[in-house]
Amino acid sequence: MNMKKLKRIILDNEEILIEKILKYAKERNYVKYTSTLKEAWRMSMSGLSESLIKAIEKNNSIPEMGPDDDFTKSEVAKFGVLEAQKHRSRGVTLGMFLGLMKYYQQVYIDIIDESNFLPKEKKHFSQYIKRYFDHIELGFTIEWAGLSGKQKLEELQKSNREMTNEKNKYLTVFESIYDPIILVGRNTNIENINYRAAEVFLNVVVPGTKYYGNVNIDGELSWINEEISKFVDSNKDEILQEKTIETKIGEKTFLVKFKKMLDVSEKYRGTVIIFNDITQRIEIERELKIKHEQLKYYAFTDCMTGVLNRRTGLMTLERELSLVCKGDRPLSVCFVDVDGLKKINDTYGHVEGDWVINFIVSNIELMVRKTDTVSRMGGDEFLIIFPDCCEEDAEKIIERICCRLKHHKKPFKCSFSYGIIEITKDSKFSVNDVIKASDEKMYKNKLSKNISRE
Prior knowledge:
Elements: H1 4-12, H2 14-27, H3 38-58, H4 78-89, H5 94-113, H6 119-145, H7 149-176, E1 181-184, E2 190-193, H8 195-202, H9 209-212, H10 217-220, H11 224-234, E3 238-247, E4 250-260, E5 271-277, H12 279-300, H13 310-326, E6 331-338, H14 341-348, H15 350-367, E7 373-376, E8 381-387, H16 391-404, E9 416-423, H17 431-448
Antiparallel strand pairs: 1-2, 1-5, 3-4, 4-5, 6-8, 6-9, 7-8
Helix pairs in contact: 2-3, 2-5, 4-6, 5-6, 14-15, 15-16
C-alpha cells in the first residue's frame, strides 16, 4: 500500500483538520475547557500530524498490538505519554482527554473518507489511523495510571500555582498598559477595565477596579453602550474611529479600536476596546499645519505689503505668457514705481515711507480685478498683471487708482509712475522682455512728470 498518499493528504489538509476538530469540539461542548485561540488548536493538530507522519515513515505496516507490548517505550505511544503528563497537570480528566481524542481520530478518518482514494486504500488508511490512536490512548492511560493519588494532587497543586502566577502576570501587564482598555462580554456588559481606563473615565486611581472594587462601572461608562451596539451590529472584526470624549482628566481625543476577542471556541465572544489618546498628536499636527501655512505664505508673499513676492510674481508672469501663446486673449502688464519715496524717507522717516507703500498697494488691490495679480519687485517697484485685458482697459484701472491716491491727510504727495505694455499671441515676449519694456515705459512716464527715479 502506498502510504505516501496518506502522508500527503495529512500534510495538505491541516486547515481542514483544524476546522473539523473545532466543529466536533463545539458540538460536544469540549471547547468550554479548551483554548480560545486557533493557533493553540493548530499546534495541537500539528503535533498529532507530525507524530503520525513519523510513524508512517518508520513503518508502513498497521501498528498492531500484542499482550507483551510495553507501550511506555513505544515510539507511536510516546506522543500519548507526553500528552498525559501535560494534560493531567492541568486538571484534565482521563475521560475528557480520551473523549476528545476520539474526535481527533475522527477528523483524520473524515478526510480519508472524503478523498478520491480507492476503497481498499480508504479501508487500509482508516485502520492505520485507528491503530495509531489506540497506541496513543494506551500510552496516555498507562502514564496517567502510573501516579499515586498523592502525586497527582501535588502535581495539580503545582500546576495551579503556576497558572495563578501566569494569570497574575497577565493582569499586571493588563493594568500596566498606558492606553485605556475596556473588556466587554457577549451581552455588552463591561467585564473589566485596566488602571488607565479607571483613571481616565472613573477618576479611580487604584488598579483592579473591576476585580476588587465596588465602583459602578457600567453606570459610569454607560455612554459606550451605544458604540458597542453599533460595532456588534456591523458584524466586522475590527473598527477604528476617532472620538472626542469628556473624561475625568479633561476633554480628550482618542483613536478608538473595537476588536472582537480572538476566540474560536466562542465561549468568550466579547469585544476589546482600546483608547489611543491622540489629543497631543492632533494639537501638534494643528500647530504644524499652521506653521506650514505660514511658511507657504512667506514663500510666496511679500511680508510688508501682503502681495506676491518677486519670485512668485515672475512665475505668474511666465505662466500668463505661456497662456497668451496658446490662445487669442491679450495680456497687459504694468510696471509701477512709487514717486519720491527717497525724499519722503529722508524728510519724514521710513515709517512714513512704509505707510506710503502700503497705502498705494492697498488702493491697487482694491481697484484691480480678482483675476489680476500684484507683486512687489523691489523696494518701491511693483508689477501688476492683467490677464485677458487690453492696454486701454488696464490704463483705465490705473487711472482710477491714481485718483484714489489723492485722498489722504499726510503732508506729502502719494503717487506712482507706471508703464503698461500689451502682449498678444504674436508678441513673442520673454519674461525679461516684458519687464524691460514696461520698465522703460514707466521711466518715460516718470520723466514726463520731472521726477527723479531715486
